Amino acid sequence: MEYSLEQINLINVRMTTVLTAVSLGILAIFYRNLPPQVPLLYTLSWGDEQIVTRPWLFLLPGLIIMTGVVTAFVISKLKLERLLLYICLGSVWTFQLIVMLGLVRIVWLVS
What we know:
Elements: H1 5-30, E1 37-39, E2 51-53, H2 59-77, H3 82-110
Antiparallel strand pairs: 1-2
Helix pairs in contact: 1-2, 1-3, 2-3
């Protein structure tokens, strides 16, 4: 099935909206139960360097929104080959899903 660029962009916006809503919903439900400091920066060395305050968790839904907006801009402005477009969309959606699941894991571990 061949999708138009507008349809592909709409699917991207919907996917970004759903993943952002789920992430913000998780934060809204569990925010008060989280400790004042949570581990977020797993790429840093062990210990206090990985710890951030709770508001930093809102960075993750922000990343989802940012990648969705950049992808929508790329879809609308660049005329990519279909295969390249689908590979880019798959990569972005995988990244967004991993970010959301990372948030779920952090909340699950510390609450």
